[in-house]
Amino acid sequence: VSEKLVIIGSGMATARLLESLADNGYGGAITVIGDEMQASYNRVLLSSVLAGEKNSQDLPLLDISWYRQHQVELITGETVVFVDSQKQQVKTHLGTAVDYDKLVFATGSRAHIPNIPGVQGLGVLGFRSLKDLDAIRRLATTGKRAVVVGGGLLGLEAAHGLNTLGVDVTVIHRRAWPMNRQLDAEAGALLQERLEQRGIGFVLSASPVEVSLASGQVSGIFIDSGDFIDADMVVFAAGIDPNKELAAEAGIACNRAIVANEFMQTRKEGVYALGECAEINDMTFGLVAPVWQQADVLARELAGVPTSGYCYEDAPTQLKVSGIDLFSAGNIDSGDEIYSQVMRDKEQGIYRRLIFTEDRLTGAILLGDRSGGTWYDQLIQSAESIDAVRPWLMFGSAYAAAG
Ligand SMILES: Cc1cc2nc3c(=O)[nH]c(=O)nc-3n(C[C@H](O)[C@H](O)[C@H](O)COP(=O)(O)OP(=O)(O)OC[C@H]3O[C@@H](n4cnc5c(N)ncnc54)[C@H](O)[C@@H]3O)c2cc1C
Questions:
Q1: CA pseudo-torsion sign 44, 278, 3, 21
Q2: Is 199 helix (H, G, I), strand (E, B) or coil?
Q3: Mode of pairing for the β-strands spanning 233-236 and 124-126
């Protein structure tokens, strides 16, 4: 009798895990249970679908025929509500019970919605799933004003999408400039200006304190300055909460997320956690690159193929807003020991900053022209001395080689 593997969640981590299990010749019987109506799809592209640059047919990660061919049992539209780790069985909200020998939590995370009055109202949304996308689009046909809480990557992509749908959008952001984790103040201000020119409004250094409702429907939002912003919808894109509750209820150790080691093993034998629901060496995840690396490690682990385990690698950031080139990599915090080269061309909307620590390149911000980004990222990752090419670095690898 072959091993029974059950995977909870049918998101991006799971798609990669399934492919990788097939590649590594895993011989067990696999069941995937996901609460969304669709099999795994490319969540990253939801922003581009909202902005009308892609359509829903571009989203699926694996064909339905793939599951048949590989004899993976796929259950969609069912939420796992109970894990009995004694009996080694999971149960869904519809009463479906599935036994397992090995269990993988790949439950991802959800939009963080702060505990403030009014958030239960109609028109308060996250931006995480196809269901959210449909709800946002539906509201956009009747509502003409939206507030997006969060001026990070996800918030700006949501704001851009809403703006292209003809909705009047205001972004509320806690910090003094958008994308403060990836950009310095000057680049942040320049990005803000570009987005303002398209009609997106910004309220900075502000946090929401209450969503106001009229007959249960969003009518606006109060911020901590006391100001009120009219809105028919509020989209929260300010952080994520890992879906760890199911595991915690089953007695599996959790911290900020489900605690796992570099082989994705939780503290319970035979139970694994992968992707945004997992916490590995005190770290949680919000981007797909590390999640897919983890999936490859877990596939080898389950298939009995040697693996040296998951090791975190920093990945560069790009903003998916058409017409705005933006790249950020490495550490962009300005400390005392840090020097930088800056190139600015205000008229062209170009700002490029390379950040050095001693003789190494440690960060790069490229706005308006992201050429050279991949090379800079390689230099940052390799931590090699750039002394010899430093004067030509700004102009790209061809110049540096010629210099
Ligand atoms: C709009 C948007 C844009 C993004 N853009 C980028 C980007 O440009 N670059 C990047 O690197 N990352 C991006 N991300 C992040 C990326 O999508 C995630 O890192 C990735 O999806 C994480 O994969 P995951 O499998 O851990 O979680 P998910 O893909 O969220 O999958 C988890 C699945 O488990 C399901 N589930 C949860 N609980 C249960 C349960 N009890 N029973 C059954 N099913 C359950 C969930 O509904 C979900 O379908 C973006 C995310 C969003 C929302």
A1: positive
A2: coil
A3: parallel
Number of H helices, E strands in the chain: 10, 25
Round to whole Å and give the CA distance between 100 and 32. 11
pLDDT digits (tens, 9 = 90+) for 258-288: 999 999 999 999 999 999 999 999 999 999 9
Task: Output the pLDDT for position 336.
Answer: 66
Are 186 and 351 in contact, with CB atoms under 8 Å apart?
yes
Ligand 1 midpoint to CA 258 (Å): 15
Is residue 91 a contact partner of residue 97, using CB atoms and an 8 Å limit? yes
Bridge partners, residue 260, by sequence: 280
User: Residues with beta carbon inside 6 Å of ligand 1?
Assistant: 8-14, 33-36, 43-44, 46-47, 79-80, 106-108, 127-128, 154, 243, 246, 275-276, 286-289, 291, 320
pLDDT per residue as tens digits for the range 75-95: 999 999 999 999 999 999 999
- pLDDT at position 322 is 87
Residue of 16, 264, 276 with the most ligand 1 atoms within 8 Å of its CB, for mutation = 276
Amino acid at 304: G
Three-class secondary structure of residue 21 per DSSP:
helix
Token couple for 147: 């507030």
Residue nearest to ligand 1 atom 41, measured at CA: 80
From the number of C-beta atoms within 10 Å of its C-beta (0-12, 13-18, 19+), residue 282 rates as: exposed
Tell me the three state secondary structure of residue 43.
Answer: helix
List, for residues 334-380, the tens digit of each pLDDT value. Answer: 666 678 999 999 888 899 999 999 899 999 999 999 999 999 999 99
